[in-house]
Amino acid sequence: MEKINWQYIIDVVVALYGGYVFVTAVKMKVTGEISTFVATTEELFKCHDKKAFIEEIQGPMMAFGLLTFLFGVGNLVNELLWQNKIVSILTLGMFLALCGVFLIFLRKQRDKHLALS
Predict the structure, then answer these.
(1) Sequence-ordered list of residues with C-beta below 8 angstroms from that of 35, at least 6 positions apart, any chain
(2) DSSP per-residue letters across 11-49
(3) pLDDT in tens, 94-107
(4) Which of 37, 42, 88 is nearest to 64 (CA)?
(5) CB–CB of 79/7 below 8 Å?
(6) What is the mean pLDDT of residues 15-20?
């Protein structure tokens, strides 16, 4: 029995997650409803202006989702074709920095619009 390369599975999951974030952002824009991906049902009752909240987070969510999807696919291609460890390390560093920036942005927007503080 062959050993499972968990990196392939992780790359696919990351790509699927990026796609989910992107689709969630588009769905929020189309429906005008905030997704529970961004805030819980209880927190949504505290939202002052749903439209403004959606407008401010929709673009960055789409960008984060797209870049996350591209990271997952790109890393999978690297693992399958080139197996370049330097590329893996550099893209992982950029991905983690992207996650950090997005989480800080999302926290600020939630504090601003959901009056959680």
Answers:
(1) 24, 27, 28
(2) HHHHHHHHHHHHHHHHHHHHH----TTTS-HHHHTT-S-
(3) 999 999 999 999 99
(4) 37
(5) yes
(6) 98
Q: Which of 24-28, 38-42, 83-87 has the lowest mean pLDDT?
A: 38-42
Specify whether the CB–CB gap between 78 and 87 falls below 8 A.
yes
Does 1 have pLDDT greater than 70? no
- Eight-state DSSP code of residue 82: I
Q: How far apart are alpha carbons 99 and 23 in whole angstroms?
A: 18
What the block records as the tokens of 70 is: 């591209």
* Residue recorded with tokens 């990271």: 71
Supply the pTM of this predicted model.
0.91
Q: Distance between the two ends of the chain, CA-based, in angstroms? A: 53
pLDDT of 41 strictly over 90: no
CA-CA distance, 117 to 111, in Å (whole number)? 6
At 99, give phi and psi (nearest 5°): -60, -45
Nearest to 42 by CA among 111, 103, 114, 112: 114
